[in-house]
Amino acid sequence: MSHHQVLIVGGGTAGITVAAQLRRKNRTLDVAIIEPSEVHYYQPAWTLVDAGTYDQQATKKRTEDYIPSGVAWIKDRVATISGADSKVTLESGGDVTYDYLVVAPGIQIDWHKVKGLPEALGKGGVCSNYLYDQAPYTWEVLKSLKAGDKAFFTQPNTPIKCGGAPQKIMWLTADYLRRNGLQGKVDVEMMSPGTMLFGVEVFRKQLEKVQARYGSKWSHYTNLVEIRGDKNEAVFDLIDKETGEVTGQRVEHYNMIHVVPPQSAPDFVKQSDVANADGWVEVDHNTLQHTRFPNVFSLGDAAGTPNAKTGAAVRKQAPVLVANMLRVMKEDKVTDDKRYFGYTSCPLTTGYGEMLLAEFNYKNEPDPSLPINTKKPRKSMWILKKYVLPQLYWKGMLRGRA
Ligand code: FAD
Fold first, then answer.
1. Residue whose CA lies nearest to ligand 1 atom number 38
2. Distance between Cα 133 and ligand 1 center (Å)
3. Where are the chain's structural domains?
4. Per residue of the chain (402 residues), what is the pLDDT tens digit?
5. Closest ligand 1 atom number to CA of residue 309
6. Which among 90, 119, 178, 361 could bridge 76 via Cys, Cβ 3.0 to 4.6 Å?
7. For the domain 2-107+265-343, what is the CATH superfamily, name and number?
């Protein structure tokens, strides 16, 4: 059994950022990160890889180069958390106890919840930008589309990381087709169980214009439940608007289907005492402190906060969590002034060379952070996404500087 003053579960965007900020604030803190993966991914660029406009290798770096100096790396996977005993159990068998815990293992991708998807993925036109290895295949499929083909894009009926990702790749595909004389000749359709194109009105209006420009279709109340890879068929449940019940099914032949699979809290979190009824880590939405275990905090995709789950949200959450944890260490209470109000930002690539930056908060109100109007697609935002944000991530955020 080992013990650390601060133990961080997960060394992804949130875990590394918090570790780096903690060590910058106090060099004497004993901090350890439990992270099984040798590689760290910059997931926001995967959509650009899909669209053939970003180097896949540049989205991957060695974890060891980003564990902050002085922080211990426990290369293992957490099997259980006991908030009551201030202890985690590792998959390899040992226990690690802590004074303070940060739970940041991200979101779980439930590929198996769409029948036939695990077997079909990566061939026959079935692709997804939710896996590093899959991104180049999406580009291959996209380039092979020809007149008369049908390209579908799906969203699940669960929370997902980067709520805009399903439509970003659809707009890029539509733009690729337009530039290659195939607009109107390939059917492009979003299949979504949701009720609208985007939850925040001001951005939705702009996105409706983008949709009109490409002449693509958007089906609501439609949920992917099965892929029949051998026949290139996808099966969708049709959902009643009022009751939410399944009223029938639609079966479509596809040449391309870009799937965003169902997602949920990691199983080991769901099964632990730190989870809320839906399986996410039960924290106060503003302080990020656990509501029952005051020495436990959470942020990022696994946290039970009702924001849209993004790395941009983590960037705003991390300093709040760090300030509150440091204050609890000293005075057993959180700070008076460091609060998170649900900021998130969704960089929606609406075509090659243009992007709409949707920034909003818990109340679905626009929450702009830049001095220019980002409420409509702009070339400058594409430059931000492709060239500036990756640098900000690797050199700023993960080093505890931004
Ligand atoms: P992650 O960064 O996923 O890290 C979780 C870590 O926990 C991983 O390293 C994992 O190995 C580890 N872990 C898992 N299980 C265990 C365990 N049992 N024990 C220990 N460790 C464990 N965000 C944006 O801000 N802008 C974007 O444009 C954007 N686009 C996206 C596009 C795509 C296609 C995808 C997939 C994501 C995108 N995101 C975007 C979302 C962003 O990447 C995530 O919201 C962010 O990485 C969340 O950080 P996290 O630390 O919670 O999770």
1. 44
2. 15
3. 2-107+265-343, 111-263
4. 899 999 999 999 999 999 999 999 999 999 999 999 999 999 999 999 999 999 999 999 999 999 999 999 999 999 999 999 999 999 999 999 999 999 999 999 999 999 999 999 999 999 999 999 998 999 999 999 999 999 999 999 999 999 999 999 999 999 999 999 999 999 999 999 999 999 999 999 999 999 999 999 999 999 999 999 999 999 999 999 999 999 999 999 999 999 999 999 999 999 999 999 999 999 999 999 999 999 999 999 999 999 999 999 999 999 999 999 999 999 999 998 999 999 999 999 999 999 999 999 999 999 999 998 888 999 999 999 999 999 999 999 999 998
5. 45
6. 90
7. FAD/NAD(P)-binding domain (3.50.50.60)
Dist CA 97 CA 319 (whole Å): 24
Ligand 1, pocket-test mutation among 162, 305, 359, most atoms within 8 A of CB: 162
Helix and strand tally (H, E) in the chain? 10, 21
Q: 3-state SS of the chain: helix, strand, coil percent to 5?
A: 30, 30, 40
Residues with beta carbon inside 6 Å of ligand 1? 9-15, 34-37, 43-44, 46-47, 77-78, 104-106, 129-130, 161-162, 165, 266, 268, 300-302, 309-312, 314, 347
CATH fold of the domain at 111-263: FAD/NAD(P)-binding domain (3.50.50)
Between the CA of 123 and the centroid of ligand 1 the distance, in Å, is 25
Closest CA to 341 of 310, 370, 311, 320: 320
How far is the centre of ligand 1, averaged over its atoms, from the C-alpha of 301 (Å)?
7
* Distance from C-alpha of 41 to C-alpha of 116, rounded to nearest angstrom: 27
151: its two tokens:
């390209």
In sequence order, what are the residues at sequence separation of 6 or more whose Cβ sits closer than 8 angstroms to the Cβ of residue 232? 124, 125, 253, 254, 255
- Cα of 15 vs centre of ligand 1, distance in Å, is 10
